Amino acid sequence: MHMPERTPAHHNEILLGTLVVLATFVTLCNSQCYFIPNQSLKPNECQDLKGVSHPLNSVWKTKDCEECTCGQDAISCCNTAAIPTGYDTNKCQKILNKKTCTYTVVEKKDPGKTCDVTGWVL
């Protein structure tokens, strides 16, 4: 049986298809991310929204429970705290503890009482 010869273009199509699937998976799994265009005038660093410079390819955590990465063209930041879902939003509220980067869900009228949560999104 003769197998058709695979061309470099065929390999590129396979790679592109794999990357599209991977990008879709990452987007679905981690929808709490955003990108900031790199505004730094220096080629080996990024400047965040507060004007702080970071070395290229460095990773840091913010006080808002985000992990950011300095890339050549942009800074990418993703939430590190699991966000509660599936709770009674009329009766309850979520509260972020910035020291531990965790949420608790408590009653609005009595914050000493926790509420049931059926799901978490990261």
TrEMBL record:
<feature type="signal peptide">
    <location>
        <begin position="1"/>
        <end position="31"/>
    </location>
</feature>
<dbReference type="Pfam" id="PF05825">
    <property type="entry name" value="PSP94"/>
</dbReference>
<comment type="similarity">
    <text>Belongs to the beta-microseminoprotein family.</text>
</comment>
<dbReference type="InterPro" id="IPR008735">
    <property type="entry name" value="PSP94"/>
</dbReference>
<keyword id="KW-0964">Secreted</keyword>
<keyword id="KW-0732">Signal</keyword>
<keyword id="KW-1015">Disulfide bond</keyword>
<protein>
    <recommendedName>
        <fullName>Beta-microseminoprotein</fullName>
    </recommendedName>
</protein>
<dbReference type="GO" id="GO:0005576">
    <property type="term" value="C:extracellular region"/>
</dbReference>
